[in-house]
Amino acid sequence: MPNTTSPKVSIIICSYNRANYIIGAIDSLFNQTAQKSLYEVLVVDNNSSDNTKQLCVDYIETHKQTGYNIYYLEEKAQGASFARNTGAAKAQSPLLAFMDDDAVAASDFVQRIVAFFETSKGDGLGGRIIPKYIPAEPEWMSYYVSSLVGNFDYADHLCPFETGKYPLESNMIVKRDDFFSVGGFNTNLPGVVGKLRIGGEGKEFFYKLQAAGKIIYYDPLLCVQHVVEVSKLTREYMYRVASGIGRGERVRMLEKGKSAFYKKLVEYIIKLGASYVLAIKYTLQGKPAKAMPVVHFRIDAIKGLIGK
Length: 308
Known about the structure:
Blueprint: E1 9-15, H1 22-30, E2 39-45, H2 52-62, E3 70-74, H3 80-90, E4 95-100, E5 103-105, H4 109-119, E6 124-134, H5 143-146, E7 159-160, E8 172-175, H6 176-181, E9 191-193, E10 196-198, H7 201-211, E11 216-229, H8 235-256, H9 258-284, H10 291-305
Parallel strand pairs: 1-2, 1-4, 2-3, 6-11
Antiparallel strand pairs: 4-8, 5-11, 6-8, 7-11, 9-10
Helix pairs in contact: 8-9, 8-10, 9-10
């Protein structure tokens, strides 16, 4: 990278066919309150077949004289884990921030990251993710299903994550040395590969950090908005996301052994039972549209876990 001074934060955006939103993401990082010398942005194109590349190249060209340190990279191995690892390897700063290609960062995003690591002994940081529904939140959406579209709000104050809790990949920051000390993202959990999703890469990554004694904090004021096109929230799409969670857990548990797999299966079955209770509750509250999506979520996760 040609930047002559080392930035404090490298923001890595992995992109796959998000031409409609990638400029919004990188432009939100251009319009930060922090000085541009403090950060760099790396867009890692993961085999996009739309005009993502041209849009990024043109944007970089028109912002050459602004001091905005933004770079375009390509990763041919399909999957977000590959792309994130590539971005991390090319990053110059001691802090790695990850954001999605259809996210929009708040104007103080970089400023809050820098301030946290200058004043805290924390090893990592995660923030709030707010769905931006286009055109509006669907009637059937509920708190329990909204996590599938990126909704994340862990607490109303700055605090460390409890063991087993962790940030989502669209708004997470870790120290570069720690990232590589745990091997980065597990490419056996690549994320989206075509229409197949094998998720859980962020979960496993943070579990490794926590096992190494690292303390990850949550800041509710560290915000990004995540675009959610309601027209794309079909039953098939929600199945891919939910079953992808199950597939990721299948990979993780089988690496540990069959007993871990069956323990997870029992956990999922219990959660399925709880989803029926929630469905009945929503129906009795006069919100029947929210009932079955909760049940479908748990059924689809089980299908992914058992390999269907």
